[in-house]
TrEMBL record:
Keyword Signal carried by entry: yes
EC number(s) recorded for this UniProt protein: 5.2.1.8
Protein name as it appears in the record: Chaperone SurA
Function, as annotated: Chaperone involved in the correct folding and assembly of outer membrane proteins. Recognizes specific patterns of aromatic residues and the orientation of their side chains, which are found more frequently in integral outer membrane proteins. May act in both early periplasmic and late outer membrane-associated steps of protein maturation.
GO molecular function: peptide binding; peptidyl-prolyl cis-trans isomerase activity; unfolded protein binding
A Pfam family recorded for this sequence: Rotamase
GO cellular component term, pick one: outer membrane-bounded periplasmic space
Reaction(s) catalysed by this chain's protein: [protein]-peptidylproline (omega=180) = [protein]-peptidylproline (omega=0)
Enzyme class: isomerase
Position of the signal peptide: 1-22
GO biological process: Gram-negative-bacterium-type cell outer membrane assembly; protein folding; protein stabilization
Domain of life: Bacteria
Amino acid sequence: MKLWTKTLLSAITALSTFSLMAEPVELDKVAVIVNEGVILQSDIDTAYKTLKANAKDNDQALPEEDVLREQVLEKLIIDTIQQQEAERIGVRIDDNRLNDAIAEIAENNKQTIEQLTASVAAEGLTYSAFREQVRKEIAASEARNALVRRRINILPAEVDNLADILAQETNATVQYKVGHIQLRFNDNQDKSEVEAQAKELVEKLNNGADFSTMAYSYSKGPKALQGGDWGWMRKEEMPTIFADQIKLQNKGSIIGPFRSGVGFHILKIEDVKGLETVAVTEVNARHILIKPTVILSDEGAQSQLKEYSRRINAGEATFAELAQQHSQDPGSAAQDGELGYQTPDLYVPEFKHQVETLPLGQISEPFKTVHGWHIVEVLDRREVDRTDSALKNKAYRILFNRKFNEEAGAWLQEIRASAFVEVVETDEGDQDGN
């Protein structure tokens, strides 16, 4: 989560609103002691002046000056404590990360880096001071993210409940074309027999049997003579037993068998309107892995794999046989080299590229990954609906963001309360400490 981005955009639009690196002015002095650090009077003055200038540019009303100064001072104190927390837990922002952040700031301000540099100079900051302030802002945000995350606990039941609510909201506008097969209980019939028949029909349907033909042949439901076709319906228009089973399934989904008082039911989602679906491609591949050793060089591993490919293509051996005998990936070797259906993103980049681009049934050239040398063959690809998973991911993100904001506020209050803060006596004799 780039939770520091909003902080930077609000702070850096002002370019130095919360700057602790302002160039010193004459007679600069320590204004506040914060734990082992300090805030200078020039820091407060710079933040105050910049905030007023921005408010004027945006035609924004501000509170009385004493209230405004108090708010600016409190913000500087909180920022300082967060930056101290970043140092305590060892957060380090390297130059590459910093350069990316500054480029993002310029882009969001619709400026080039040169224009941003000029704006910084106009606010009385050197570019190097500005860079270090951005670095501190990012580090503070990273520390906050890391420390607040530890306080967040999201239960699976919370995710499921919110996902159900989101599904209900989505379902309000979704229409389903539904097919239905009903197997009715007969007098004195063992209900387990009906259940077994229903499961057998589902297996046939999943293997490609025509749903309407099955409905004509077996269904005792009200739409049997229409091939089980109930037409287009929203969930609120469906029989309750249908609506209770349909939870954002995608086109082609077989649902059931499920039981009611009269028998067992099977549904098919023939088509869907108004549902934003999420589909992913899964790949079933198999491979043979050879790991180089002090004895076996990279060239030797490549040579072995090329020989295996030659033997397979020549019909002298099968991929499964050679994987069992020679592959140094024990888990897949026991399965004839097969890795099962997986999304390519689970693999390391070189392997991912191969399983995404290889034609079905073709053996790759030997290639190297961090695990060693491989040859791979793609056995199958399939599209899998992940709408339900995407909905749960969305629910998790909503819960996380909600809890993060709650916990971040509590965390800031706690570190502020536990910090030593002393406002150094001014000419008017003001002093505060805790």
